[in-house]
Amino acid sequence: MKTSTEHIPTGRLQTMAPDRPAFFLLRTVFTVAPIIFGLDKFTNILTDWTTYLAPVATSVVPVTPQTFMYIVGVVEVIAGIMVAVRPRFGALLVAVWLLGIIVNLLVLGEYYDVALRDFGLLVGALALNRLSPAGSWRRHR
Hints:
mainly alpha, elongated
């Protein structure tokens, strides 16, 4: 009698535990996206990022909105790199960063749809953290 798994090809992805492909997918997205968005803070090709900045942010850090976005861009690039090399820590860094963005958008009183989307991303970053046991960057390479 054949079992239901006898006909399944034994490719590399099929033999992986289900959490490994999820880990790789989340690590890739949370590496690439912050780096792209961070670099775009210097070019404003995707959008004018300063429109998403609550004025209170530049009263706390007394710089121009564009200079503030340059700082944000550097932090986002670093966060993306951290997810690539230390996914457990990097995922928490991205989650905290997303929480800051959400708070900023709520204080701004606009872009509630973007805040909700970023909440979903925050949950994804926390899932990446849970899928990334200590030292996982060594084992999953």
